[in-house]
Design brief:
The chain is α+β, with helices and mostly antiparallel strands. Helices cover 49% and strands 6% of the residues.
Length: 1893
Amino acid sequence: MAAAAAAAVGGPQPPQAEVPAPGLALDKAATAAHLKAALSRPDNRAGAEELQALLERVLSAERPLAAAADGEEAAAAGGGGGPGAAEEEALEWCKCLLAGGGGYDEFCAAVRAYDPAALCGLVWTANFVAYRCRTCGISPCMSLCAECFHQGDHTGHDFNMFRSQAGGACDCGDSNVMRESGFCKRHQIKSSSNIPCVPKDLLMMSEFVLPRFIFCLIQYLREGYNEPAADVPSEKDLNKVLQLLEPQISFLEDLTKMGGAMRSVLTQVLTNQQNYKDLTSGLGENACARKSHEKYLIALKSSGLTYPEDKLVYGIQEPSAGASTLAVQGFASAAGTLGQLDSSDEEDQDGSQGLGKRKRVKLSSNTKDQSIMDVLKHKSFLEELLFWTIKYEFPQKMVTFLLNMLPDQEYKVAFTKTFVQHYAFIMKTLKKSHESDTMSNRIVHISVQLFSNEELARQVTEECQLLDIMVTVLLYMMESCLIKSELQDEENSLHVVVNCGEALLKNNTYWPLVSDFINILSHQSVAKRFLEDHGLLVTWMNFVSFFQGMNLNKRELNEHVEFESQTYYAAFAAELEACAQPMWGLLSHCKVRETQEYTRNVVRYCLEALQDWFDAINFVDEPAPNQVTFHLPLHRYYAMFLSKAVKCQELDLDSVLPDQEMLMKLMIHPLQIQASLAEIHSNMWVRNGLQIKGQAMTYVQSHFCNSMIDPDIYLLQVCASRLDPDYFISSVFERFKVVDLLTMASQHQNTVLDAEHERSMLEGALTFLVILLSLRLHLGMSDDEILRAEMVAQLCMNDRTHSSLLDLIPENPNPKSGIIPGSYSFESVLSAVADFKAPVFEPGGSMQQGMYTPKAEVWDHEFDPVMVILRTVYRRDVQSAMDRYTAFLKQSGKFPGNPWPPYKKRTPLHPSYKGLMRLLHCKTLHIVLFTLLYKILMDHQNLSEHVLCMVLYLIELGLENSAEEESDEEASACGPERCHDSWFPGSNLVSNMRHFINYVRVRVPETAPEVKRDSLASTSSDSLGSLQNSGTAQVFSLVAERRKKFQEIINRSNSEANQVVRPKTSSKWSAPGSAPQLTTAILEIKESILSLLIKLHHKLSGKQNSYYPPWLDDIEILIQPEIPKYSHGDGITAVERILLKAALQSRMNKRIIEEICRKVTPPVPPKKITAAEKKTLDKEERRQKARERQQKLLAEFASRQKSFMETAMDVDSPESDIPMEITTAEPQVSEAVYDCVICGQSGPSSEDRPTGLVVLLQASSVLGQCRDNIEPKKLPISEEEQIYPWDTCAAVHDVRLSLLQRYFKDSSCLLAVSIGWEGGVYVQTCGHTLHIDCHKSYMESLRNDQVLQGFSVDKGEFTCPLCRQFANSVLPCYPGSNVENHLWQRPSNKSIQDLIKEVEELQGRPGAFPVSISSETNLSKEMESVMKDIKNTTQKKYRDYSKTPGSPDNDFLFMYSVARTNLELELIHRGGNLCSGGASTAGKRSCLNQLFHVLALHMRLYSIDSEYNPWRKLTQLLEEMSSQLGNEEQQPEVPILYHDVTSLLLIQILMMPQPLHKDHFTCIVKVLFTLLYTQGLVALSVKCNEEDRSAWKHTGALKKNTCDAEKSYEVLLSFVISELSKGKLYHEEGTQECATIIPVAWSPESMEKYLQDFCLPFLRITSLLQHHLFGEDLPSCQEEEEFSVLSSCLGLLPTFYQTEHPFISASCLDWPVPAFDIISQWCFEINSFTERHAEQGKALLIQESKWKLPHLLQLPENYNTIFQYYHRKTCSVCTKVPKDPAVCLVCGTFVCLKGLCCKQQSYCECVLHSQNCGAGTGIFLLINASVIIIIRGHRFCLWGSVYLDAHGEEDRDLRRGKPLYICKERYKVLEQQWISHTFDHINKRWGPHYNGL
């Protein structure tokens, strides 16, 4: 043995691959066993060497890849085995050696037994379906595989199912990531104790073999990697290498799946540094190893990394200043190499590379390791494996292998450290990658497993400087795309920002790194380190400042931009992901007092960074005009930390605020954004294109608002509360460019704004002030109050679904913040403010989702217009909220008119922000309010109701938030005398309201009316005297005031008092001479705010003296001020409310109000109108009138259209329809008159110009889906359940026809049955008619119309020109007069024998078109073409049943079957019976009459030979019976008793010349009823057993000679039995047959019931036919009496029939010839057939007549049951799991949607199935989307979902993954549309599928 082994190892044998020895496997096993034995000895050195030698040879890495690469070496390498053989051989050896001579499978099993499986750790890749339970998760990234999820108990938890984006791993069993209560049954047990120790020898071989194997793999990877040549992506080569290595990596992956024992061996191997050193040093004598090591070094070098030993060679190649300081600071050649690498990679447009280097950032210096960016030293296999994994851009297999190892704790730590060590390298590879998306996903797949674990993250942070590495890497990543900022001072700006156009930002390449950073910041221990580390905070603020001011917009003033850049997407995403989310992460750890220090740190470095920024952009005090950036992350960091400090940490706000000057700078840019928002909405930026609107919308959009607009407004609130209020207010109006508008003069000149923008900008400024002063989001509201306010605002705009609410309410972006969507507070607040409206259906078929709508008390007390305005993305939403509010007030009777936005009380301010209210009590604001009130009263231009509304809102805010009560009211009375210089005496609004202002000096253009007036006034002495003694009028200039204040503040902080205030540059030059000169005028005002308000009340109410102080009547009002009557209303109410509040706050005001009201106010002087103004007014008026006229016309048109739509389109409830004039029934009209909906003419249909009905022809298999039991079949949800189609109506009819065709003459078979149960043609109409020539020209115009329609004109499809219903053909109306119709209907008294003869003669006439064939008329042509259409509607296989193809019998069968299909379907639409009676359900919309004409004309072309005509068999006794059987060689005709009676009826009627006589019709029915009844008796006799038969035979025979024996069922039954007994029909009953016959005791009642049920289907169809042909109404009745009512209606019941004794069906019989003779003749045919085929004879006699209504399959309650079974089910064709599985809801077949595997002749499987199962109609449930898709012919549409979640919403594509439940109402609607064939009409969005579904 030993010798053999030695020979095997060392002997000079030929290479293994060539030995074709059969005993090779045995050899391997033996060798392995021997080696194992050798190694088990205490002294195992010899064995080890032996093994090494063997492995050296087997695993030599010299051959395979080279072989794969170059063909010529292949021969040398593998002999004949080809390139793959050697690897396979090596793997076989490894397996053998591992198993140590035993079987490999047994070995695997043995190792598995020692698996302490406490963790699941299942790794999955993208698209895997996993679960996430928020109730059980500790980390937000927690996920579970389906198996663990279903094994655990998560009832009532907040969980969802999701499709993995990047891949993941199951966390079950890991208590670091999830709570133990959520573990599944398998992983609950802590099983370390009861697992035995692993025997040493089991894994001994593995420890020897695996190092070599992994080294071999690494060598392959080294070999295969070639540095990509410049610009040529080398993915192809890399993938080739990876494909070759597939088996090796899979082998490793299988090892990991063996469980814990094997994993720990692998961990040892991968992390052992000695092994690595020995094998890879490359110093050995082995040339191959040396070469491999060289390749490794080259790869390192080309990656811009250095190997520590070669430091001197690859040192810092770029001695730039930045780099050398870095080296000193310990970040070795970080900048240098990176700079070099980058500049070689991509040349930047404008040399920004150099710039980036010049302004290199100060990186923190406390990093111990010199080499974050570019030194890598690999010390173990694991490290080099990861290196190559990165190099090869994270191949999926490698990632899975590395992750599969994670359950091993030791490995997890080692791997995490390795990963961190390679972090910089990952970033570089990612930046260069062409497939950055895939790569990002794979990176995150790994990192999320490592960094979600707090313990691990903390350890790595401490030991490997994780935070330093991450921040540095992010910084470097962004540095590659910096450009110079153009904000403010373009030339001298030193600030750099990221360039949003770069791929790095545009493609979100940075997100893996940012997401890791956010992930680790969610751990408290890590975040604390970050917040304590000053160096890191500085670096991070530097990083954030890269985004400060990015994506700058400059307003286009001249022409529209040529190219709209879309960079703003990238900018907003970058700020949210890279700046805001880490900020929220940090904020979530600053919740308590103890964390004050952290906030101080952040705020300090944030302010430093801001100061640097202001210096860098050279900012003094004025922002540059016409620029705006929405990105100020530094401001927002500062604001959010301030807010947190006050709200949670009880910090004193002033201790973290900077000086006044800094505050003034801080407010400028956020204020600039608010002003720009108003400008954008005023269309001032329209030349910048749509994207600027997009930015304005994104800025306030729900995902961004709490990281953007909210902090901005909060920061402005803070500034406002600390700065001088006059300065702040004047700044606001100046930023909004409306200063010039705020003048008392009626005309003014605005230097910075066009007149048309003034109004909306003023509205913007006032609205901003209202928001600023009333918003409390950060000023004292609790989290729950905020949530409630947000929810109310969203619900007031529109009713919302649960998911859209979750989406619209800005949650704190950090998942750990506690406000988790779906968390307890969300649901409780929702139920408090909203009512749930269950999903409903609208008649048009559009389906509603479950919605939440605000409760009444919310509208009453909580509707907050300010919040709504703040949160609306679209301005129309504000209007929508107001409309809904108005509707509520009207409905609840609170206010009938058009209300104004209600004033809402605010939550109290937090004490730190009390200063904010000073804004309301500053003179500047009061002057503005006074001026605006005056202007509104005087009707100056550019003021709107909105302005007034906001002015009043501000006054009311001021009254609500007034300072302490005035102490000395009387003292202030002398105010006016005391102060001369300023408008108002003090700053309190309450007292200023009553202050009268007499004269104002204004600057006006010379052309203004004031100028003329005032020059007169100033001459008269008394007017001067009335000026107060000083003689000065009030003058006020906002700008000057602001300048003054600014100067004061600057001087006060005496920093640079000498700094010049730059002159204000006007941003809009005016052409010289265009502006009129300004001159000064003095206006006499003599008003106070109170008097203005009272006059305003008069103006608004339109009545003089309309205001009367309410407290004069009811003094109570002053005591309890909250009066509900004032809470809702319009402007009048608002004024009353304000006056009341003013009176309440001061007695003085109360007195003044009363005084003003006593004086009779003179009417407001009417304005003089100049001619020019009159002209414009006239124009306006005319325009207004025209507009009104147009509105009226439109409204009328709309109502007409609506009423038409109601009558024509209401497909669901057709009963209510206005009858469309198809036929008019007045006898005096000679011909039916039709309206053509195209040309509008009406007239009869004629031979030359026929009229037609608009019809839709469609093939239908609905009838074929009827089954004989009421319960619908269930959809299979397990392998056991299957659906078999053999009990369907279609299958039964098929079997019957093929049975007949086996034994009888073909042509006769085709007359004995109907087809069309599957693929029958159903004809429906909308009831509109048109001339056929008009229709042709209409189709031409459609064909030339290039608009993409949802239908195909070439296939004849069109929409009805009037009602737009889908159609595809026109059915000609037969020209006939109604009068003759009435003649035909009069009953004649001919005997039945005469009628029978007439019928026979009429049928015998040769069929011809109504006019002689020689002159083919238009009508006959049309009839032919519509017949062609009908035939082409269905597939050939549903038309051809004859054995001889193309025989005329086929057409004949097809035509009468079309009639049958339409009658049967109408019966189904009526619910399967005619009890309801009434007209046809389709109103007058039925086209059966016309259809019958067309079919009859064609049927009469085929005459049946008279001897074959079944009519003779029914009505005549044939003399010689035997002669028929004479010719044996021919197949016999079908016996008449095997004929389907309904088919016979249609044949007889369609063979008659049209129009038909009522008499003839009744005659035919009577004759056929005798046959039907006999069939019933025969079937009955076959069903019962021998004794019953003989008993009946006996009893009936006794009564045979009574008078009405022919009408007694007993007699007839006994006769039938005796006749049939002559044959063998009853004889051959074997024992096996007994089972099928149920031993029923037949009573006379049950027999009568059986016979009636047997005949009813025929009677129903016949009655319908009679109704359509002769227009008679159907009587309604109870179900029990349906038979008697229908038979009397058809004239079967004799009129003199008495109804006293119980009704007997036999009394309807009217035999044309003696009954017994004809019956015996019929029975003779049966007997002669059963002579030979008794079995089949019997089967054909029993016909199943009781079909139940068709149904779709019954679906399970919970969608998950369907999903779990079908989404993993394999396709029956290709046995793979389809990408888009679907299941047919009609028959339960599982199909692949769009699956190419199942394609047949260019038809994909769903389309094919829709043709086979539904003749072109398919209803499929898409498993992965929960949506139903309808295929109709060549079109398809998405129907919607019948599964809704607990909130009544669909979840298309299962995006939310919440549990879904069946919505029965929706499913019913779907079924109804299927049965009524109305998919085409109800669903609107159809598209062609090109057979690709």
